[in-house]
Design a protein that fits this description.
iron, Aspartate Aminotransferase, domain 2, Cysteine_dSase, 384 residues, Aminotransferase, class V, 3-stranded antiparallel sheet, 2 domains, alpha/beta, pyridoxal phosphate, binds pyridoxal-5'-phosphate, cysteine desulfurase activity, Aspartate Aminotransferase, domain 1, 7-stranded mixed sheet, globular
């Protein structure tokens, strides 16, 4: 299978996740809305999973709403906020380094007359809270900031932003895209004054096509999906029971020792950084020192990231040049916003780890990386 270092794109499901999903498809396949005993059993199991998820966040059960994943959460939350508050104001603040599921939703709202301020980031990929404060207006209705950036791993000052918004005269809703933060940083949305949050299961060893929104109790919400009234009328559609069983199993395993998992990823990331710095010259680490535990972004001089990615792939080392969603497009909007030069952007590789990786894999991957970079530089330098 090789060495998989592309865990920000997606993670390998835990075996427990696969087992629970097989059970759901072979034994627990009834509709949880059915009035009979079998359906009610599934409903009860979903309730328990929801309770377990809520516990990981110090939240209430009813604050957790299952969706099809991060993209749906971001769309639903931002569009709901815009729709319900447009009489009060049409100004939204976000950042220039959000995931496309936020950026493209905001762009869509701009076509409908909303005004969006995209905060810049510094060379570490972080926004400045004072900058946010300066941009708040009477008609600002929503602030949407990602917890952890998916390309470089910078962690945004979510607690400080929450504190700032708490004291506003006019309510400003606070949405956090926590797709790369949940399961990588231990936090409680209520302590950070978060109103809405987006989470996806496939980034934490769960299945694809399932995630959840955190919607703070008491906040009005206009569902994107209307229909049979599932999920307390907030997200209609027959429940994705295999997905819910899968996310439930993933969370049960991960949160048994969340700090242990975070520590392991941090030490693997440090080893990776040290090995690269020690063995390969002409590199630039783009991730901040205090970045998240699982992402390391590095630029290699005189190498095109895309070519290196495919060179490594032949040797069964799997990495990425940016986010999976944007990797086919030109350039990285995140590295660009951080002020990297075009050559640095072109030479960037994102390594992303999971607690399934080992030290041996990291050492081996860097050996292969070193040879690959040397080979590619030889070719490039001969051509010059
Ligand atoms: C920060 C961030 N937000 C949202 C998403 C979208 O999540 P999903 O793949 O579940 O739609 C991703 C996925 O890469 C992400 O990294």
């Amino acid at each position: 299978m090789g060495i998989y270092l592309d865990n920000s794109a997606t993670t390998k499901p835990y075996q427990e996740v696969v087992d629970s999903m097989v059970k759901s498809l072979t034994e627990d396949y009834e509709n949880p809305s059915a009035a009979h005993r079998m359906g009610m059993k599934i409903e009860k199991n979903i309730k328990e999973i929801r309770r377990n998820i809520a516990k990981t966040l110090g939240a209430k059960e009813k604050e957790i709403i299952f969706t099809s994943g991060g993209t749906e959460c971001n769309n639903s939350i931002i569009r709901s906020c815009a729709n319900l508050n447009k009489q009060r104001g049409k100004h939204i603040i976000s950042t220039s380094i959000e995931h496309p599921s936020v950026l493209n939703t905001l762009e869509d709202l701009e076509k409908d007359g909303f005004e969006v301020t995209y905060l810049p980031v510094n060379s570490e990929g972080k926004i400045c809270v004072e900058d946010l404060e300066k941009n708040l207006r009477e008609d600002t209705i929503l602030v949407s900031v990602m917890f952890v950036n998916n390309e470089v791993g910078s962690i945004q000052p979510i607690k400080e932003i929450g504190n700032l918004l708490k004291n506003r005269k006019n309510k400003v809703f606070f949405h956090v895209d926590a797709v790369q933060g949940y399961g990588k940083v231990d936090f409680r949305p209520s302590r950070y004054n978060i109103d809405f949050m987006s989470v996806s299961a496939h980034k934490i060893h769960g299945p694809k096509g399932i995630g959840f929104m955190y919607i703070k109790d008491g906040i009005n919400f206009k569902p994107l999906m209307t229909g049979g009234g599932q999920e307390s009328n907030l997200r209609s559609g027959t429940e994705n029971v295999p997905g819910i069983y899968g996310i439930g199993a993933a969370i049960s395993k991960l949160f048994l020792d969340l700090n242990g998992s975070i520590e392991k990823m941090n030490s693997l990331k440090n080893l990776l950084k040290e090995e690269i710095s020690k063995n390969i010259d002409g590199i630039k680490v783009n991730s901040p020192k205090d970045g998240v535990c699982h992402i390391l972004n590095v630029s290699f001089e005189d190498v095109r990231g895309e070519v290196l990615l495919h060179y490594l792939e032949q040797k069964e080392v799997y990495v990425s040049t940016g986010s999976a969603c944007s990797s086919k497009k030109k350039g990285s909007h995140v590295l660009n916003a951080m002020g990297l030069t075009p050559d640095e952007i072109e030479g960037a590789i994102r390594f992303s780890l999971s607690d399934m990786n080992t030290e041996e894999e990291i050492v081996k991957a860097v050996e292969i990386l070193k040879d690959s970079v040397e080979d590619l530089r030889k070719i490039i330098r001969i051509r010059r």
